[in-house]
């Protein structure tokens, strides 16, 4: 595999991870739970969903290999206290933990990941056209 294809493929994989994280955060935006350290948590009530982000870093391997790598990272703070006294997860003060997810930021991440994925696909197509043109050349 050429270095160009290796870099583009790693970029596509990284953008896939970004979409996975954003989709998980979006799907669990309403998954509230007991605040850690509260009486509800001591009673065994589940914790709120902990949202994740993606950290993308450059990779360099021997023999000229390169690309990018994306790993899930926790978002800090993972949850925000929210007043919801009627919830089964509420502590004595009526507080529950709500995931620290910003839906606008998640949508922007999804759009950016889609565009970056498209750019990497364009690199793969261009590489394919160049190789085909080279092989079709008459000497």
Structural overview:
- With 139 residues, this protein is of the alpha+beta class.
- The chain has helices at 3-27, 39-42, 103-136; strands at 52-60, 66-74, 79-83, 95-99.
- The chain has a two-stranded antiparallel ribbon with strand order 1-2. A two-stranded antiparallel sheet has the order 3-4.
- The two termini are 25 Å apart.
Record keyword descriptors for this entry.
alpha+beta, 139 residues, two-stranded antiparallel ribbon
Provide a quick synopsis of the model.
The chain has 139 residues and is an alpha+beta fold. It contains 3 helices and 4 strands; from the N terminus they run ααββββα.
Number of domains: 1
- Percent helix among the residues? 40-55%
- From the spread of the alpha carbons, the general shape counts as elongated
Number of helical regions: 3
Whole-number mean pLDDT: 90
Query: How do the strands line up in the largest sheet?
Result: 1-2
SSE string, helix = H, strand = E? HHEEEEH
Structural class: alpha+beta
Amino-to-carboxy terminus distance:
25 Å
Radius of gyration, rounded? 22 Å
Low-confidence stretches: none
* Strand portion: 15-25%
Biggest sheet record? 2 strands, antiparallel
Task: Tell me the layout of helices and strands.
Elements: H1 3-27, H2 39-42, E1 52-60, E2 66-74, E3 79-83, E4 95-99, H3 103-136
Antiparallel strand pairs: 1-2, 3-4
Helix pairs in contact: 1-3
């Amino acid at each position: 595999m050429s270095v160009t294809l290796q870099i583009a493929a790693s970029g596509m994989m990284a953008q896939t991870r970004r979409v996975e994280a954003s989709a998980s955060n979006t799907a669990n935006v309403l998954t509230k739970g007991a605040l850690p350290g509260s009486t509800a948590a001591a009673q065994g009530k589940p914790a709120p969903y902990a949202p994740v982000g993606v950290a993308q870093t450059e990779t360099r391997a021997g023999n000229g290999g390169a690309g990018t790598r994306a790993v899930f990272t926790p978002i800090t703070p993972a949850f925000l206290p929210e007043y919801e006294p009627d919830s089964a997860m509420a502590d004595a003060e009526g507080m529950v933990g709500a995931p620290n997810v910003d839906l606008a930021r998640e949508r922007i991440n999804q759009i950016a990941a889609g565009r970056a994925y498209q750019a990497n696909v364009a690199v793969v197509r261009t590489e394919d056209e160049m190789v085909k043109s080279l092989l079709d050349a008459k000497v």
